[in-house]
Sequence to fold (348 residues):
Amino acid sequence: MKTTLYLSLLALLLIITSCGNGDAPKETALPEEGTIPVQLATVETAVRTEPIFVSGTLASEEEARLSFKIGGIVSRIYVREGQAVRKGQLLAVLDLTEINAQVSQAQYATEKAERDMKRVQNMLRDTAATLEQMQNSVTGYDLAQQNLKIARFNQAYAQIISPLDGTVTRKLMNEGELASAGASALLVSSNRRNDWVVRVGVSDRDWARLNTGDRATVRLDAYPDDAFKGTVTKLAQAADPLNKLYEIEVRIDPAGKRFATGLFAKVELTSSQSRSYAVVPVEALVEGNGREGYVYVNQKGKAQRVPVTIGYLEGDKVLITNGLEGIREVITAGSAFLTANSSVLIKN
Fold:
């Protein structure tokens, strides 16, 4: 009986010993159901000069939209699109039949008024006319002279003379058409080598950051491997009533390249004004749409969605202009799986 008890105790001891030789599994803390593991990143600050990216077309700084002073039938247009012209060159003329007749009428009226005035003067000396009649005749003569001057002026501007050395970039009328007074007939651009600009529209926010003299980098599709230096030369003082943008003029240094009106240009404007940004990793940004986006922050174990205004991207960082005031950390890893008030577990 004692032998049997002894053997039983020995077998139990061996079983306990063999179990003790293995490593006991370590207990792992598992997140509660519905809790999302996340990581945090510190919100940094940086001072940057945010570039402004816009596009436009190349043009000559000195352009002239030429038109007739009065309406009439277009008799001749002496130039074609793309043709070089000289300052003072005759470009187009109206049919002068009606205009010359008006000048003749004014001339006849002036001559008659002059004869009437002299006759009244003679009658006044003979006391056959009154002083009032004399004064009226003088006034009539003066009015006739002014009408003649107007008719001759209109006759002179029934033609278009080039005001500059340049190129006809657009011909907006043809011979035989009825031209309205002041309607553009020809567009002439200067062809001076260093007279090239890009006119672009910017928002009121970007307009406020720019000053004349600010630098610009211009890239043309015609020369994809070249970057041209530019300078902001003009800032519009009123917005375009149609698109609500402010026109900016950027003068370009052609650097020996051949330019033409209408070349498409991409412009990077560098403001002389710097500003402070909140900087976070790009993975912290969710639901980005243009300038708007969201980030999540940890609020006592709950995810809180915060709207932010995006300045621009810089590598793997996002520069934020508004929304992160007073916030020191944002959620990065795991932010794509969060919703408002999700439970979060901070991982190191």
Notes: The chain has a mean pLDDT of 82.
